[in-house]
Design goal:
The complex is a heterotrimer of chains A (249), B (288) and C (321).
Chain A (H helix, E strand, L loop, with lengths): L3 E10 L2 E11 L4 E5 L6 H9 L6 E6 L2 E2 L5 H6 L2 E3 L12 H12 L15 H12 L15 H14 L4 E5 L7 H14 L4 E5 L3 H7 L2 E6 L2 E6 L1 H6 L1 H7 L7
Parallel strand pairs in A: 3-8, 3-9, 6-7, 7-8
Antiparallel strand pairs in A: 1-2, 1-4, 4-5, 9-10
Chain B lengths: L2 H32 L6 H19 L2 H27 L4 H23 L15 E4 L2 E4 H23 L1 H18 L4 H23 L9 H16 L4 H21 L4 H15 L10
Antiparallel strand pairs in B: 1-2
Helix pairs in contact in B: 1-5, 1-6, 1-7, 1-8, 1-9, 2-3, 2-4, 2-7, 2-8, 3-7, 5-6, 5-7, 8-9, 8-10, 9-10
Chain C lengths: L1 H24 L2 H26 L8 H17 L5 H23 L4 H21 L1 H4 L5 E2 L4 E4 L3 E4 L3 H22 L3 H11 L1 H6 L4 H27 L1 E2 L6 H14 L6 H19 L3 H15 L3 H15 L2
Antiparallel strand pairs in C: 1-4, 2-3
Helix pairs in contact in C: 2-7, 2-10, 2-11, 2-12, 3-4, 3-10, 4-5, 4-10, 7-10, 8-10, 11-12, 11-14
Classes of the chains: A alpha/beta (249), B mainly alpha (288), C mainly alpha (321).
């Protein structure tokens, strides 16, 4: 059974076609990379799947359920979480609180008014274990906005992770990272997506080829090619689309 | 209820509607362009009315007031934008809003200090007094004058925005100020200009309204709600929306006062709530 | 850390003791001012919850203060035997209901639109209070006569006395403030902070942002209603001044003067506002003008209010050591 199925998805913005008929099936446990030149519509695709935008045409099925047009809130509750290309953390709250926010929501505690947070030690406990996983534990009490870029990117993923998803959408998680940071990020991503399904947007081909089981190439809002890394490497259309880019296989 | 009475009421609605448009035009342009809702805007309107009173009393000429007062109010607006609003811009829209609120409040007090709290009578110039026959009734000339002035301004605005280079820059800035800045235009100057013109228009509306509505310290607040409703219904930054909404509110007030005096305010208010529920960006506004 | 907690508790204890003995050490005039500061602090606190903690700027908060006040007067006049605590409760519930209704329409719009809408709704309630004069007294307002209030173990308390009114107001205000203090330390308090910090991300991690704002707005309205009720019990009178734009402006000024970023800003703000306006209105007739100027200066040069200034001075003091 497919984990996520996208059926003939279309999205226009004031007449500009950003996604033109994208269909995709993703199996549980799969690690699927979405690549393509800038402006191909990758982030828009994520925005459509995660509920920020409503598609003009087409459907999105998550675990067989039609989630087309659902709010981000509802989709997240079902087990789909995303991280953002431009860091979207709670800048004025501590790192610990950033993670706790997600945990509290996952546990359905957002509106509890008759218990004190300090009497709920299970929340910071779980938060700490997640912080350990993403290696930000030593900055637990620092305001998130003061963290270095690399740590903020880790927190970015950590927040999505803390919502307890079974499908994780990561939007350019290694953007702006050094080679060293990227290597660490890949190790982290492998660790946290064990037993989960991953869809990752990436420009760094090393990352793509070390992580992905399946790759989809997007170009001008359409799927140019989709298949195993081998298929994509040998695909002449893909090579042509990338001509002129610094990306080479 | 004869047809001629209905037509007269409808005419009243158009006149008040156009006056409302004069005041709202500047407000919606500034809001659409700078993201600031200038609460002090209707205080400029009030200032215009009071200055008109004084100029008319000193010089005996209403026409002079009509010419000079909008310029003065425009200057006041320029000072407010350049020396107050711009400083607070960094703190965000909330503070800008509070600042304009504070200025509205302070200007209201200044007016009370200088002119007192009792309503003032501004005389209509003789040539505009009296009425002319209109569909079986006698219609006040002064109201037609207000209509005339408003239509003149509307035409002028349309010309400015649609046919001149400055107009294109202004329209561009309403749509996306950052882009216009990147394209090399002097956006702070454009802001200052639009703010000043908007204030001047409010002042002009004040002069026109002075003999027509009562000139008293609460007049800014009275028209403020109507203006806000107009902007919400018409959509931010949309002059066309402001025009349509102004006429709607004008007619609503006009007929409401006659048929359902106690409920007129409630009805206007319900209309705003309805529009917000059904089409939150207003009739012509952009989403979001 | 433990030391800090002890210090806070000690300060709290001292404050409570002081509050308890004020009626015996302060002259009646001063006591009246303290009572005023008390319920206005509560009103401002309700406003600070919305603005400082929730990030929502409202220009129409007097609506709920006024509804609480009017309900109190109406109930006491129409049903004289009702226990005062019940009256306060019912008034608060009415204010909360109104806040829920208003909030339902307002919270779905952001920032400036939100502020505009709250202003419009305030004008609506003002219009109702003005026109429905058979119920609200219109321009004339409504006067009330306070009888006795029965409390178990204490008996009948004569509520027309300043001292007894002081204790009632203080008890309610302290209770509400303590409640708010703890509310901010619950998961809901955290939700409010998260939504204020990054509304967008909050949606994506499972927060219903609209429901959060609406809940906060309703709670804020409820507390404003309690403050309004206390106002009317103290003044023994309700009028349009409780529900008009002037009152909405006043709470904004008070909140701002104190500083909206702190829990104690409201107390500081209302105290300073009340003493300042008492003082300055004795000097000049145009004191409202100076108030406006003060407000403008604060926005431009000290936008975190007095708490901010105090914080700034304390920081400077610390770094110079």
């Amino acid at each position: 059974m497919t984990h996520l199925e996208i059926i003939d998805l279309h999205k226009d913005f004031s007449g500009l076609h950003v996604i033109s008929g994208v269909s995709l099936k993703i199996a549980p446990g799969e690690r699927h990379a979405v690549i393509g030149p800038n402006g191909a519509g990758k982030s828009t695709l994520f925005n459509l799947i995660s509920g920020r935008y409503r598609p003009n045409k087409g459907r999105i099925l998550f675990k067989g359920e039609d989630i087309t047009g659902w709010s981000p809130l509802k989709i997240n509750r079902r087990g789909l979480a995303r991280s953002f290309q431009i860091t979207n953390i709670f800048k004025n709250m501590t790192v610990l609180q950033n993670i706790e926010n997600a945990i509290l929501a996952r546990k359905g505690m957002q509106f509890k008014m008759f218990r004190l947070l300090k009497n709920m030690p299970e929340v910071p406990d779980e938060a700490r274990s997640i912080m350990e996983t993403i290696s930000v534990a030593e900055h637990a009490d620092a305001p998130a906005g003061e963290l270095s870029y690399g740590l903020q990117r880790a927190l970015e993923i950590g927040i999505a992770l803390a919502t307890g998803p079974n499908l994780l959408l990561l939007d350019e998680p290694t953007a702006g990272m050094t080679k060293e940071e990227t290597r660490e990020a890949v190790t982290l991503i492998e660790k946290i997506t064990e037993g989960k399904t991953l869809i990752i947007i990436e420009h760094d081909m090393d990352v793509v080829f070390s992580l992905a089981d399946q790759i989809t190439v997007l170009n001008y809002g359409e799927i140019l090619a989709s298949g195993t890394p081998q298929d994509i490497k040998n695909n002449p259309d893909v090579k042509r689309a990338y001509l002129g880019n610094k990306i080479c296989f | 209820m004869g047809a001629s009475l209905l037509i007269t009421q409808a005419m009243h609605g158009v006149v008040y509607g156009m006056l409302l448009f004069l005041v709202s035009a500047g407000l919606t342009l500034v809001f659409g362009m700078m993201g600031v809702l200038n609460i002090a805007h209707t205080a400029f309107y009030m200032l215009g009315a009071y200055l008109a009173f004084s100029v008319a009393v000193w010089t005996g000429s209403f026409w002079l007031a009509l010419l000079v007062v909008p310029i003065c109010v425009g200057l006041v607006g320029a000072v407010v934008e350049r020396f107050f609003l711009r400083k607070v811009h960094v703190h965000g829209h909330g503070y800008e809003l509070m600042l304009t609120y504070g200025i509205f409040f302070a200007l209201g007090e200044v007016v009370k200090m200088i002119w007192g709290t009792f309503p003032l009578a501004v005389r209509v110039p003789d040539i505009l007094a009296g009425s002319i026959p209109f569909f079986g009734n006698a219609y006040p000339v002064y109201r037609l004058f207000i209509l005339f002035i408003s239509l003149l301004v509307l035409a002028g605005l349309a010309l400015l925005l649609m046919r001149t280079r400055i107009g294109i820059i202004i329209r561009g800035a309403v749509f996306d100020a950052e882009m216009v800045d990147i394209l090399g235009q002097n956006v702070p100057l454009v802001f200052l200009g639009v703010f000043s013109i908007g204030s001047a228009l409010a002042g002009l509306a004040g002069v026109a309204a002075a003999p027509f509505l009562t000139t008293y310290p609460g007049m800014g607040l009275d028209i403020m709600i109507d203006c806000f409703v107009v902007i919400v219904i018409g959509g931010l930054g949309s002059l066309g929306g402001a025009l349509l909404a102004s006429l709607m509110i004008g007619e609503l007030q006009s007929f409401g006062v006659v048929f359902i005096p106690d409920l007129a305010l409630v009805l206007e208010f319900l209309l705003m709530v309805f529009i917000l529920a059904v089409r939150p960006q207003g009739l012509f506004g952009e989403k979001g | 850390m433990k030391n800090n907690k002890l210090i806070y508790l000690a300060i709290g204890f001292v404050v409570l003791v002081l509050l308890a003995v004020f009626p015996f050490i302060l002259p009646k005039l001063q006591l009246n001012i303290v009572i005023e500061i008390a319920f206005f602090s509560l009103f401002v606190l309700s406003y600070t919850l919305l603005l400082g903690y929730g990030g929502l700027l409202s220009f129409g908060h007097a609506a709920f203060f006024g509804i609480g006040g009017y309900l109190t007067a109406i109930i006491i006049r129409s049903f004289p035997g009702v226990h005062l605590l019940l009256v306060i409760l019912i008034s608060a519930a009415a204010a909360a209901l109104a806040a829920f209704w208003v909030g339902f329409f307002c919270v779905r719009r952001s920032g400036t639109y939100f502020a505009l809408l709250t202003l419009a709704f305030n004008q609506f309630f003002f219009a109702v209070a003005l026109k429905w004069s058979s119920v609200t007294g219109g321009d004339d307002g409504l006067g009330i006569k306070l009888g006795d209030m029965y409390l178990p173990f204490v008996g009948n308390i004569h509520m027309h006395s300043t001292t007894n009114m002081y204790y009632l107001v203080m008890a309610v205000v302290v209770l509400c403030m303590v409640g708010c203090w703890f509310l901010l330390k619950t998961p809901f308090g955290n939700t409010v902070a998260a939504v204020k910090d990054n509304e967008d991300r909050a949606w994506f991690i499972g927060y219903n942002v609209l429901r959060t704002k609406l809940t906060l707005f309703t709670i804020s309205g409820l507390i404003a209603g309690i403050a309004g009720s206390l106002f009317v019990l103290f003044e023994e009178f309700v009028s349009l001044g409780c529900i008009n734009l002037v009152m909405s402006t006043q709470v904004l000024f008070m909140a701002f003067i104190g500083g909206t970023g702190s829990f104690f800003g409201p107390i500081l703000g209302s105290a300073v506002y009340i003493y300042f306006t008492e003082w300055i209105s004795g000097i000049t007739e145009n004191w409202e003008f100076f108030l406006g100027v003060l407000f403008i200066l604060l926005i431009m040069y000290a936008h975190r209010g007095l708490i901010g200034i105090i914080g700034f001075v304390v920081d400077r003091f610390r770094t110079s050591e």
